[in-house]
Design brief:
309 residues; alpha/beta; TIM Barrel; ten-stranded mixed sheet; 10 helices; globular; binds iron/sulfur cluster
Length: 309
Amino acid sequence: MTPFSPQLASCTCCPRECGVDRLAGDTGFCGIDARIAVSHRGLHFGEEPPISGSRGSGTIFFAGCNLRCVFCQNFQISQEFDPARVPVLSVDELADEMLRLQACGAHNVNLVSPSHMVFQTADAIAAAREKGLSIPIVYNSNGYDSLDSLRKISGLVDIYMPDLKYMDADAAGRYSGAADYPDIVPNVLREMQAQCGRLELDGDGVAVRGLLVRHLVLPGLLDNSKRCLDLLHSLDPEMYISLMSQYSPRYRAAACPEINRGLFKKEYEVIVDYAEDLGLEHVFVQEMESSGYYLPDFERDEPFEGDKQ
Ligand code: SF4
């Protein structure tokens, strides 16, 4: 037993609160038992500038997910993974992986989709710190996190980088199977803000601590995007925000004809203008033409085109 592992005996790690015994090998909505299933790890240069910096972000992608987004760009590892083929690491091995990424020059350790692995990663962070990990930990989640879990790991995360996907319950239910997402996420963001504060950058513009919220603009859902920006502005008018235009109708988006297309440039511009009109100043915007750059293929050794050496 590790310090946090008893939390997995009747799992309420995330808002699904499945109550399954993951220590006994049972799985809930996320499809992952107590083991640490890691689909990909390596330096990644496609994150926001304060996260990738000049030397890259040390990403660790976990298998499984507690959302089922019909448009998931990581569906190969979040939904369609083969549990028998995903490498499984012990807590010590995950801690060593964090140290390896640090030795490779990574600016940070970037935990991608950790919401259902929150306690396994907490154990590994604590172990890695003991062994000399000094770079920041980035908790890169979908925003559908448990408030109680976040409070339990308080002090272990340096940078929170959650999505804010929806403030529209119908869209959250239809596209991600989580109609309560808009009820959950405001308090999640408040907790992250309380733990780490506003994003702090070093002299090179690389993040050392704080909160950076991502919002992916979905085609036709401009009111949803505006409500998300309204929430962020109400939480902190100086919030650091990444406004993403990279939507691509992947995975099962064809089942929802209204979002089975790319984002129009005009739609993205409306949302960028809205953010500006609100007075939000710390907003990272994406080039529309860059969407292909961000779409991974986890069948390849190097999933992201831009990360190839
Ligand atoms: S982490 Fe997985 S098993 Fe636990 S509550 Fe969430 S979806 Fe259910």
